[in-house]
Hints:
By secondary structure, the protein is mostly helical. It has helices at 2-24, 30-47, 51-69, 74-97, 104-107, 109-138.
Amino acid sequence: xxxxxxxxxxxxxxxxxxxxxxxxxxxxxxxxxxxxxxxxxxxxxxxxxxxxxxxxxxxxxxxxxxxxxxxxxxxxxxxxxxxxxxxxxxxxxxxxxxxxxxxxxxxxxxxxxxxxxxxxxxxxxxxxxxxxxxxxxxx
Length: 139
């Protein structure tokens, strides 16, 4: 516990001393910073020692570029990557507890509410858009 207090005090002092230097990093042009970040990422992936890591880095860079190019929203993907493992683990746990019976998600009120909200959020925007288009076509 004492180590955490010491580290937090050190981080506070460091933050107070270097806040202007860290803020000036935001003034660096993207055309300068982006190549530096790419080089550091490539060196880090290569330094691990396997070519798979470098290939995975390049693959995810291509996926990220394609998502940005075709205007995919990035935050939902990031949330999915972070929460995907947790959701899958708990889904397997639930199925193991209830003998691989999927109807348990339709019979429990809380899980039924969550499924309903997922469907609503998934298709709600499309339905709203279709209704708006239909109202405009009637005019």
